[in-house]
Amino acid sequence: MLGAIAGDIIGSPHEFESMKSTDFPLYVAASRFTDDTVLTAATAFSLMTDGDYAANYRLFGRLYPLAGYGSRFDQWLKGEDTTPYGSYGNGSAMRVSPVGFALDDENEVLAEAERSAAVTHDHPEGIKGAQAVALAVFLARRGADAETLRGELTSRFGYDLARTPEGIRPGYVFDETCQGSVPEALICALVGDDWERCVRLAVSLGGDADTLACMAGAVAQARFGGVPKEVDTQAQALLPAHLLDIVKDFEARYGGDHAC
Fold first, then answer.
1. In angstroms, rounded to a whole number, what is the distance separating the alpha carbons of residues 4 and 44?
2. d(Cα 95, Cα 123) in Å, to the nearest integer?
3. Which domain holds residue 66?
C-alpha cells in the first residue's frame, strides 16, 4: 500500500508538467499526497471494516476536500446521489492496490476489485483497469516474475504490454482514462529493476504523473517486497496522523508495507 502512496507523492509535483525525464528529485517542497492516497487509504479502511466502498470514499473524500479529485468524482462526492456514473477514468485503478495485498485468492481479488470500482467507475474499462492493477499486485506478491505478469495481464485484459517506456514517452500526453494509463503504468512497473526505477519511469512518461506513479509504485512494491527505507520514511512524514494510522493498521494486518 505504501508503494502506491509514495508513488503518488513523488509524482504529485509533475502531474501537469509533462515531465519527460527520469532525472528528477524524488521529493521537493511541492510534494504532497493527493486524491490517489486518500482513496487508497479509503479502500484499505473498507477492507478492514465494513466493506462499504461508496460510504467510505465519500467519508474520506469529504475529510480531505482539497486533495485534487476529478470533476465527476467531485460532483459525486459533494452530491446526494450515491449511484455510479459510468466512469472509465483511472480513479478506480489508482485506489485499488490494497485489494491485491489483502486477499489470497485470485478470483476473490478480481471480484473485490470490481466491487471497489463499480460504486463509481462502473464502465467496463473502469472495472478492467482496477482488476488489472489489483491482479498485478496479487500475482507479484505471490512471486510471479515480470514475464509471467506480462503474459497473464495481456491475455486476461488485452493490454499491449510489449511496448517500452522509451517507445511510449515521446508521443504520450496526459490521459486520465484507465485504457490510456493503466497499461502504461504496468509497463513501467514490469520494466524497472527496482522500486525507484519503476516510479521514475512512470513519472517520465509525461502524463498523469501522480496516478501513473501510484499504480506503478503499488505493483513495484509487490514485485520487490517493499519500498526503499528513505522513500518510506519521507512518504510517512508527509501523511496526516489519520491516514498514517490506516497505513500502519493495514500493514499490521496484511504485512503489505515494509521498507527494503
1. 12
2. 16
3. 2-254
User: What distances in angstroms separate CA 203 from CA 9, 63, 156, one per listed residue?
Assistant: 11, 27, 26
CATH number at residue 77: 1.10.4080.10
Helices first, then strands: H and E counts in the chain? 15, 0
Three cell numbers, residue 260: 527494503
The number of domains in the chain is: 1
C-alpha cell at 201: 519511469
Mean pLDDT per block of 10 residues along the chain (260 residues) reads: 97 93 97 98 98 97 97 94 95 98 97 98 98 98 97 97 98 97 98 98 98 98 96 97 97 72
User: Per residue, what are the HEC states of 149-183?
Assistant: HHHHHHHHHCCCCCCCHHHHHHHCCCCCECCCCHH
The distance of Cα 2 from the centroid of its chain, to the nearest Å, equals: 10
pTM: 0.97
Cα(98)–Cα(184) distance, rounded to whole angstroms?
Answer: 20
